[in-house]
Every structure is written in C-alpha cells, then in structure tokens.
Design goal:
Layout: E1 7-12, H1 17-29, E2 36-40, H2 43-53, E3 56-59, H3 65-73, E4 75-80, H4 85-88, H5 90-99, E5 102-105, H6 110-127, E6 130-132, H7 140-153, E7 158-166, H8 171-182, E8 195-197, E9 202-205, H9 210-224, E10 236-243, H10 246-264, H11 266-275, H12 285-290, E11 292-299, E12 307-314, H13 317-334, E13 342-343, H14 346-349, H15 351-360, E14 364-366
Parallel strand pairs: 1-2, 1-4, 2-3, 4-5, 5-6, 6-13, 7-10
Antiparallel strand pairs: 7-11, 8-9, 9-10, 11-12, 12-14
Helix pairs in contact: 1-13, 3-5, 5-6, 7-9, 7-15, 8-11, 10-11, 13-15
The structure holds NADP nicotinamide-adenine-dinucleotide phosphate.
Length: 385
Amino acid sequence: MTGPREFDLVLQGATGFTGRLAAEELRSCAPSSLRWAVAGRCPERVHALARKLDVQGLVADGLDRSAVGALAARTRVVLSCAGPFTRWGSLLVAACVEEGVHYADLTGELPWMETLIDRHHEDCVERGIAIVPASGFDSVPTDLGVQALVTELGQAVPIHGFFTLQGGLNGGTLHSGLALAEDGSPPTTPSRPIFPLPVLDRWAAPFLMAPVNERVVGRSAEMMAGVQSGYGPSFLYREHLLTRGRAGAWGMATLLKSANRMLASPSGRWLLRRFGPKPGEGPSERAIRMGFANLVLLAGPLNDPIAIRRWAWDGDPGNQITVRCLVQTGLALAAGEALRGGVLTPASALGSSLFNRLQDSGAVREGASGSGAVGISAPVGATIH
Ligand SMILES: NC(=O)c1ccc[n+]([C@@H]2O[C@H](COP(=O)([O-])OP(=O)(O)OC[C@H]3O[C@@H](n4cnc5c(N)ncnc54)[C@H](OP(=O)(O)O)[C@@H]3O)[C@@H](O)[C@H]2O)c1
C-alpha cells in the first residue's frame, strides 16, 4: 500500500439489502477510531445513507474501472455487498490488488472465486494482500468451525457438517444464482443420497450450499497443509442438511432437484425472475431476527464419531449471520490481523482471531439455537418445518 489512506474501511454495495444491514452493523460495532465510509453506484442513495449514518459516501459503479480504482486508492480495506459478484465484482478486486488493499465479500459464486484465484493469488501472496471472498454465511461458519475442530484434533480425519437452518431468501442471492446459471455454470448441488444418522437421531439430505462450503474448506486445507496439523492430503469435508426423519430428507432432496432443474432451464429462470424476490428485497425484520443456523460437526466415522461439536449462530443466515461475519472480517483485516496474502478463505486469512471476534461479539456460541427445528432457506420470511 502506498502512503496513508483517508479511510480504514469502505463498504461497497452499501445501499443493497445486505449492504444496509452491514452498514448498520458497522455503525453499532466498529471501534470509534475506525475511519469508514459507505459506497455504491447510485449517488442519491449513497449520499442519503451516508447522511443517515453520519459517515462519508463514495460513488463507484462496479463497471467503471477508474471509479473503483479511485475508491480503492482511498482506503486500507474494502468490504463488498455488490453482487452478483460475477457481474459487478471483478474490477473492484483488481483495483484492490493494484492499490494493495485487503478485500472481503459475500460471494458464493464458485466459478468467479476460481477466476480470482487464477488472476490474483500469486501476486497477492507476494505482496501480502488478503482477498477473502465467501466471508458471509457462505462460508465463514463452516470454514471456521471445521478449522477449530481440525486444530483441536490435530489429526487428519474426515469431517462431516450438518446444518439446520431457519431463514429467508434475498432477491440478490436468487439473482446471483440466476446469473451463474445464465453464464452456463451447471447447478452444483450434489445429488447425494439421503441417509439416516442414528448418532444424532436424524436424517441427512443434500444441502444447497455444500458445494461452496466444501470447496472453501478444501481450499483452506490446501492453504494450511504443512502449516497446521489436521489438514493434509487425507483430510475430507462433506456437508449436509439435517432433517427430523426420512420424509423430511426426501422432501428436501426433491426440492433441491426441482430448484436445480428450474435454474437450468430458460422457462424455469423466467418463473424465478417473475415470481421470486427482486434485487434489493429480503426477509422482514422479524424473520431476520427469528432465523438461526446450527452446525453440528462430526469427526471420524459417522456411526462412531471421535468428536461432535455444535455451533449456534443466531439470526437469518443470509442476512444477520452474513453481515456479522462480513463486518468482523473487515474489522479484523483493518486491525492488521491477516495471517498471509493471497486469494484466501476466512480460515486461512484470519483463522482463530476471526472466530474469537465472532464469539466475543455474540454472533456464535457453542451449543444449539432455536427450538431444534429443522428449517431451510425458503421464500421471503417463511420457514419450512
Ligand atoms: N454469502 C452469503 O451467505 C450471502 C448472503 C446474502 C447475500 N449474498 C450475496 O451478496 C450479494 C448481495 O445480496 P443482496 O441481497 O444485498 O442484494 P441486493 O439487495 O440486490 O444488492 C445488490 C447491491 O449491488 C449493487 N449494484 C448493482 N449494480 C451495481 C453496479 N453496476 N456497480 C456497483 N454496485 C452495483 C446494488 O446497488 P443499488 O443499491 O444501487 O441497486 C446493491 O447495493 C449477492 O450476490 C448475494 O448472492 C451472499
């Protein structure tokens, strides 16, 4: 980074649904010494938000190379909620790399993450710049939970993660999935069989976000191999949704197959665009508050695990949990806690310091949240039990 910067942190995409929540989260938990600003593409909306929060507002369209370059040149850290990232994210990341700025975002768009690795990883390693995609619900809870268990065990054993969730679906998330499908990326949810899990008295079903979370954990393992015992060539992570019984597991598997089919077909995508939530929309405040995500991690054989750990995250996964993860990632980067440079994962970029921040701030605790109910991300504000 060249010379002193005007801001410690700039939040791009601050006028979107998660962006506004992230801006409020920053206002409530950033240290008073942090010099931060909000940014977005629309001057009126950015300045209105900036006035409300009493911070500076910067205008930068993600497709305007010089505008994102100017934004990156003014700060030490960029957080971005401007997605689909495959559409609006690439120039901003390139500008951050050029200006030597740490960066984190909310993407779950795997092909785009692979592009960032190809384009920027080596350069960032050399220059100590941390680029941390997937710093929301995908994939912070999984990546940090697995890393904590790997650290505790100190040996490479297979780990399986099982989520129970309650939450809603943002228009931005739906439209990021649609953008990927339109770009020809096949739906990536694995068509794995459902199976009983007697050790938890539950059934397991395929999980929508498993491909992203498994890839992120796999990359953490690649990055940490040789640095941290427990990751290594024989390490394996698999992720599932947990349901009460066989019928629930079958229902979830069927629902996912249908969603994948819809995303894969032009008429299905038309229906999702027409009737699904629009960009800028998301669950109600109440639904955001009532949401939760419980992650159970099992190490070793599923029928006789050597360790079981439970992590409870309060709030809607795609919103409250997501913005808490993103904001604490940004604060950790701004505090100089990045462990290395590269196009990284939450665990390889910040590891236990981020997990400690999230626990200290009350975002996550050991145990289980909610009623133990089994829910899934559902149309805005709804829960499926
Ligand atoms: N990792 C996770 O767990 C997780 C959870 C939730 C969301 N997400 C992802 O986060 C992203 C945002 O979600 P959301 O619900 O907040 O969506 P949203 O409400 O539609 O917000 C999208 C943001 O992108 C901005 N934008 C649009 N075009 C732009 C451009 N040309 N240049 C710069 N910014 C532009 C929008 O600006 P305007 O306000 O001016 O329209 C808005 O701020 C999505 O990609 C979603 O998939 C991830």
